[in-house]
Specification:
11 helices, about 35% helix, about 20% strand
Length: about 400
């Protein structure tokens, strides 16, 4: 079953039309929109209320004058009717709409001087009545430049220095500088982050340029910081097949072959989706049973510190396999690491949020992050003040 307006991303098919016009989903949405009640601003509601009171008062005054003239002064009814109508017309404030429009236009000009564009005049007045602001996060409150600043493995928790797409940055484990080459699992993590990735990496004039999805670009930056050369890795382990990321399954998987014919699968995705698919964890280059409580505790702690968490896993595939199916990554994976990403906040966003809070306006952030995650208006990572992770032994 497909609805009108659906996009076919791959494959072919033949369908039979079973509904047109209002019977389609788009038609149903249009019907619902036609019954949506239009909201008015507080100022317009007060003006409408004032208009009703004013109309009632004018009519009452005109009626009283008509009755006084006809009943007490014996004026002709026709003459008093004309006088009452003239009084009613004269009492109506005809300049009120123009005054309101001019006032709102002045407000629009003042907002324009502050680089704010107002599409409708009444919207200016609503700014003075705002009590809560709901804002998008990525690209609005943040720079939309993801940076991997924490990597949790079974044998150590790393802090990764550097911001943005700068491929320079040191590694810290247990409060001391560390080298990824000294941790076999770290190279596997960096390799998975680089290969299970659709970001573009270009090496020009001695520096790297990254493009594509900000999160995937951040993972490519992590691999370069780990000492990997993207071109060499892609040449040694070319991609054969892929399961692209979709919001329904919340992970991406790729299949790679080395030149000896061995097949490897790499998976990255939401931790809550990958952990049930992992039976092992990699510790000091060796695979051992997964410690679910350990990883859930680390993920919860990372989320509470403001990190966006992403799990990386791998699996050895049958030799010569050329296609990757969902069943191949439905279980039997080995968890490599959970990375924590931060999107640095815009400096002006921090000041704007502080100004709103000082004015008594609540700020709500609309995001699809982990429920425990709290946005921190600071890029200072607390991982450097921690001790090393527990040893790899289960329990």
């Amino acid at each position: 079953q497909a609805f009108s307006g659906s996009l076919v991303t791959y494959g072919q098919g033949v369908g039979v039309v079973v509904g047109t016009g209002a019977a389609t989903e788009i038609g149903r949405i249009s019907t619902l929109l036609s019954h949506v009640q239009t909201l008015t601003t507080p100022l317009l509601r007060k003006i409408a209320q004032f208009g009703r009171w004013l109309t009632g008062g004018i009519l009452a005054l005109a009626a009283a004058m008509f009755g006084f003239g006809v009943g007490l002064r014996d004026y002709a009814a026709a003459d008093m009717f004309l006088a009452a109508v003239g009084l009613a017309v004269a009492a109506i404030p005809e300049g009120l709409p123009a005054i309101i429009t001019i006032t709102l236009a002045i407000g629009v000009q003042r907002m324009a001087r502050r680089n704010a564009i107002i599409r409708r005049l009444p919207a200016v007045e609503t700014l003075g009545s705002v009590t809560v602001i709901c804002s998008d996060k990525t690209g609005t409150l943040t720079r939309n430049e993801m940076t991997v600043q924490a990597v949790v493995q079974a044998d150590c928790e790393f802090a990764v220095e550097g911001e943005g797409y700068d491929a320079r940055g040191s590694w810290v484990c247990g409060g001391t500088l560390a080298s990824p080459e000294d941790f076999p699992g770290m190279l596997d993590t960096c390799r998975a982050a680089l290969l299970c990735n659709d970001a573009t990496v270009h090496h020009e004039d001695g520096s790297y340029r990254f493009g594509g999805n900000p999160m995937e670009a951040a993972l490519a930056v992590l691999a370069v910081k780990g000492g990997l050369t993207p071109a060499r890795e892609l040449e040694e382990l070319p991609r054969v097949d892929t399961i692209p990321f979709e919001s329904q399954h919340k992970f991406m998987a790729t299949l790679h072959h080395d030149h000896a014919g061995h097949a490897f699968g790499f998976v990255k995705g939401a931790p809550e989706v990958l952990l049930p698919r992992c039976h092992l964890e990699r510790c000091a280059g060796q695979d051992q049973p997964l410690r679910l409580d350990y990883w859930e505790g680390r993920i919860e702690r990372m989320a509470r510190q403001g990190y966006r968490t992403l799990a990386l896993a791998t699996r050895a595939m049958p030799r010569g396999q050329r296609e990757l199916a969902f069943g191949d990554v439905d279980g039997g994976l080995t968890l490599l690491a959970v990375v924590g990403l931060l999107d640095p906040p815009r400096d002006e966003a921090v000041r704007a949020v502080a100004a709103c809070q000082a004015a008594g306006i609540g700020v709500k952030m609309i995001t699809g992050d982990h429920a425990a995650r709290k946005w921190r208006p600071s890029t200072t990572t607390p991982w450097r003040r921690r001790r090393a992770a527990p040893t790899c032994s289960p329990g």
